[in-house]
Structure formats: C-alpha cells, structure tokens
C-alpha cells in the first residue's frame, strides 16, 4: 500500500516559518519619539530579536510632511521603508501587523486607532490624552477584536510603570500611587526653589531650554499629569478610565515665598498625581495638585525634568520608580518594549494575554471617584494679615469651629507694603488632617476678615509614609 504525501506543514514548522519573517510595523507620525524609535530599533536590533523571538521592522511611515519623514527615515539608515502622506494607507495594508500611533491629541488619533483595531491590527501608542479620555472605548474594541493595545510610553516615558502595575505587582492589593509625572513642572519647581525665582520667570527659562512648549497649558495646569494618573488609577484599582472625574490643579498660582517657607519647615513642593483607595469613604481619590512633601522622602529630592512614582502595595510595601519621563530615546524604549511584548504574544490565545488594565474586562469595579471636598489631607496655609493684636486668635477660633487642628504656626514679616497699615505679617499655619470641605468653609470665613489683606494661599500636604 502506498503512503500519501502530506503537503501541509506541522504546527511547529508553520511557527518556525512565521518566526523567520520580521513582524511588520506601520508608524503614524514621525517626530521626536518616532525618529528615536527608528534609531533604537536599528542600534539594538540583534538584542531585540533575541528577546522577541523574531525581527521587528517598521516598513511603513505616514506623516503629512512626507519630505521631512523621508529625511528622518534616511537618517536612521533603514532601507525598504515606504513613506506615505495618508495614515489610512498604513491601516489598509494587509502586511502590517502593528500600528504605532504617535500623532497625539483626541481627534484624528482616536479615529485612526479605532480603525486600526477594526482592521485587526495591534496598536502601540504614547497618547496619554487619548487613553485617559477614550481608553475604556478603545480597550473594549480591542478585546472584542482580539488585538492588543500597548501604552507603556503613555505614562512616565522610559519608566516601565505600566508593566510594574499590571504585572510585577499583580499579587498586591495596591493602596496608593503618588507620582511626579510631568517633567516640565518639576523642572520649574526645582528652579524656583534653587534660585528663589517666581513662576513666570522660570517658565520663560523652561521654554527657552525646550523643557516647556510654546503653549505649556497642559503641563503647568496639571492636565498632562492628570491624564497619566488617571490611567495608573484604572490599572491599580480595576476601574474604568475616568479622567473627567479627576481633580486637577496646576502650579501657576505658586509663589517663591511659599517654596521658601516650605523649605524652612522641612518640606518641598512638588506637583503630584495622587490616587488612593479609600474603603472607609467608599471610593477612590484621583487628584493632581501642588503638594508639600517632607524633604526626607526620596521623591521630594527628585529634581529637574526627572519623573518618579511611589506605589504602595499591601504585600510589597512602598516601591519607587525613577527615571526620564520624556525624550526621544527614553520614550522609544517604552514603545519598543510594547512592540516586543506584542511580537511575543502575536499568535497567543487572546484570552491568555495580560489584560489591558490588569483586571479581566468583566471583573472591573465601578468604584466611585471621590469629590475633592471628601478628601482627607493636611494643609499649609499662608495668610497675609495686618500686624495687630487679636488676628491670630480670630483665625485659630475659625479653624477650631470647623474642627481643624493646628500642627504648627510660623510668623514672618511680610514683603509687600499695605496702604493702611505698613508692612503686613505673613502667618503660616500647618494643619493636621482634615476633610477638605471643612477647610474650604474655614477659608471662606477667614478670607472675609478685614485683617486678612490678600488671597489666602492653601497647599495640600502629604506625609507619604
């Protein structure tokens, strides 16, 4: 009896045949991060292939400025890359397995990401704004289509915080996250402290040095940090992405005097993104604002444009992640890490991949985000008051009537002349923990006193034990 020949390859042979070919990637938007991704891929391609199990090749680039895009591709020294002006040509190419979105913003980027997912492409993005606002929709679409969305580069640049939260700390019940996650504001605050300058002066320096954009609103008003902490909060606590419920306050109203007073009291002021589990209040804190941090904490000593994130888990305790939060190659490092992860799992059963937001899609909890008025924290207050008898007594009485206890009081001669009473006194008060709603009521009453001569400065304080 003759045996029949079998032309079909065995599964193992098919896998080896696939692995012999590089996975093909299309890049939408080639700017600082895109060109950095090309350079790092070219420089480290052997190491990357050894780790991924097959090669990774960017074979298409879409950018409205095709001449500039072609020049950047040529500069990277990678051959065989097709440059097009239409991003949808990349998505329509059946040979493209992964689409990298580096356009940014909420508009066309959202449409292109959703179209790539619908076409069965995996997606890698550094777009924190897109994910913070539309992440739940995007992840649901990806789950339904069986594709992956990698976004390590969306939070803290080259620091692998997404992987740490989603995988490395998966055994933990995460209690809190507090992070310096915007390098522009951290640079400004570092310069204000070191040189004794006010915000406006340092902002101009930051723009001249390239640390701040021509329009720095998203950075200095805390929006960028809020995008990032919103994503981390969803991963940490297994909730939907809810940027619209975050409390956001920037650094534009900070004065050099408050940074100096904080230093004298043993604190440094940092713009922190904070999210905490508050089972006692039945919700989660999600907030961004300037914060007094004890100078002895490691995170208080993070200077310049660097980022750092503290995560507290019940099993591991407190962990700290530090590094460059922006820049071409640090961010490219995170983009390529996602490419490697997707390459490894490209043919894996979608049900056995790491969930986008750490928890299985059906296991997310709709835990409410606390209103800022419910948050419990302590405060630094600076009141510019008339230098006369009874002022301190009036103020402490108001605080006591709102059940706010005082931790420390400092009086210093004021720096500004006041028309009716010469130089006023700066009265600095540190409080113990209190409900923010009570503090707001007390501030309104104190501000109405005729002896309070200027708007009261109030900054939240976190011990970060």
Provide a descriptive summary of the structure in words.
This protein has 465 residues and is an alpha/beta fold. The protein folds into three domains: 11-159 and 330-363, 3-Layer(aba) Sandwich (Rossmann fold); 161-325, Dihydrodipicolinate Reductase, domain 2 (2-Layer Sandwich), CATH 3.30.360.10; 373-461, ACT domain (Alpha-Beta Plaits, 2-Layer Sandwich), CATH 3.30.70. Helix content is 38%, strand content 23%. The chain has 16 helices and 17 strands. The strands form two sheets. Strands 7, 8, 9, 10, 11, 12, 13, 14, 15, 16 and 17 form an eleven-stranded mixed sheet that branches. The protein has a six-stranded parallel sheet with strand order 3-2-1-4-5-6, sandwiched between helices. Strand 5 (122-125), helix 7 (128-145) and strand 6 form a beta-alpha-beta unit. The longest helix has 18 residues, at 128-145. The chain is elongated, with a radius of gyration of 26 Å. The relative contact order is 0.12.
Radius of gyration: 26 Å
CATH arch. level architecture of the largest domain: 3-Layer(aba) Sandwich
Structural category is alpha/beta
User: Tell me, what is the CATH class of the largest domain?
Assistant: Alpha Beta
Annotation field: number of helices: 16
Shape estimate: elongated
**Poorly predicted parts:** 1-7
| Beta strand % | 15-25%
Q: What is the helix content?
A: 25-40%
Largest sheet: 11 strands, mixed
Number of strands: 17
State the CATH superfamily name of the largest domain.
Answer: NAD(P)-binding Rossmann-like Domain
C-alpha termini separation:
80 Å
Q: What is the name of the CATH topology of the largest domain?
A: Rossmann fold
């Amino acid at each position: 009896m003759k045996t029949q020949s079998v032309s079909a390859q065995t599964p193992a042979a098919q896998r080896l045949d696939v692995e012999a070919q590089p996975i093909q990637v299309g890049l939408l938007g080639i700017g600082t991060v895109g060109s950095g991704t090309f350079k790092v891929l070219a420089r480290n391609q052997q190491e990357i292939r050894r780790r991924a199990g097959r090669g990774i090749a960017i074979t298409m680039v879409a950018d409205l400025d095709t001449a500039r895009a072609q020049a950047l591709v040529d500069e990277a020294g990678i051959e065989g890359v097709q440059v097009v002006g239409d991003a949808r040509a990349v998505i329509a190419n059946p040979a493209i397995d992964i689409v990298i979105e580096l356009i940014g913003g909420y508009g066309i980027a959202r449409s292109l990401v959703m179209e790539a997912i619908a076409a069965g492409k995996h997606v890698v993005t550094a777009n924190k704004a897109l994910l913070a606002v539309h992440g739940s929709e995007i992840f649901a679409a990806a789950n339904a289509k069986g594709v992956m969305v990698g976004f390590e580069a969306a939070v803290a640049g080259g620091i692998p915080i997404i992987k740490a939260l989603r995988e490395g700390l998966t055994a933990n019940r995460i209690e809190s996250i507090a992070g310096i996650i915007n390098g522009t504001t951290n640079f400004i605050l570092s310069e204000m402290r070191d040189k004794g300058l006010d915000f406006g002066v340092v902002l101009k320096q930051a723009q001249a040095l390239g640390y701040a954009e021509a329009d720095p609103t998203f950075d200095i008003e805390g929006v960028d940090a809020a995008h990032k902490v919103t994503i981390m909060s969803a991963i940490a606590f297994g909730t939907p992405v809810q940027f619209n419920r975050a409390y956001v306050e920037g650094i534009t109203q900070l004065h050099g005097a408050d940074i100096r007073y904080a230093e004298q009291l043993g604190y440094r002021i940092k713009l922190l993104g904070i999210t905490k589990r508050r089972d006692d209040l039945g919700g989660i804190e999600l907030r961004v604002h300037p914060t007094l941090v004890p100078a002895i904490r490691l995170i208080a000593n993070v200077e310049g444009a660097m980022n750092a994130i503290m995560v507290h888990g019940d099993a591991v305790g407190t962990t700290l992640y530090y590094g460059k939060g922006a820049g071409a190659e640090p961010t490219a490092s995170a983009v390529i890490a996602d490419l490697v992860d997707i390459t490894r799992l490209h043919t894996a059963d979608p049900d056995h991949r790491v969930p986008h937001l750490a928890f299985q899609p059906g296991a997310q909890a709709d835990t409410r985000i606390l209103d800022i008025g419910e948050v419990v924290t302590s405060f630094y207050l600076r009141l510019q008051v008339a230098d006369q008898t009874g002022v301190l007594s009036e103020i402490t009485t108001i605080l006591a009537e709102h059940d706010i206890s005082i931790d420390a009081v400092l009086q210093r001669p004021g720096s500004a002349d006041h028309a009716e009473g010469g130089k006023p006194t700066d009265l600095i008060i540190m409080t113990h923990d209190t409900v923010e709603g009570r503090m707001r009521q007390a501030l309104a009453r104190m501000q109405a006193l005729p002896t309070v001569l200027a708007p009261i400065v109030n900054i939240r304080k976190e011990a970060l034990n």
